[in-house]
Fold:
Amino acid sequence: MAVKIRLARHGAKKRPYYRVVVADGRMPRDGRYIEQVGRYNPLTTPKTIELDLEKIDEWISKGAQPSTTVSHLIDIVRTGAPAPEKKQKLSKKAAAKAAAAAESAE
Structure:
């Protein structure tokens, strides 16, 4: 049985909220899990990451494999650094307005 530490998506449409769970690799993403070991909310500013590192270390010692996303979240929590924020991309219309405003200011 391949045990994974991964994210399970919850929340409404376009409003994701994730639970960090330990689950059998054959179960569906949002299906049955063995234990919940944390939470991750990417919508708050700054992003909310709550992980129980003791439980995660215990599961990893038993052979559980964290997903790439979960391993990245674990690294962020261990270092204490804030989660990196993505730059907001301007729409074409907004970029054109900003360029026009900068041009008229000159």
Notes: The chain has one domain: 3-105. The radius of gyration is 19 Å.
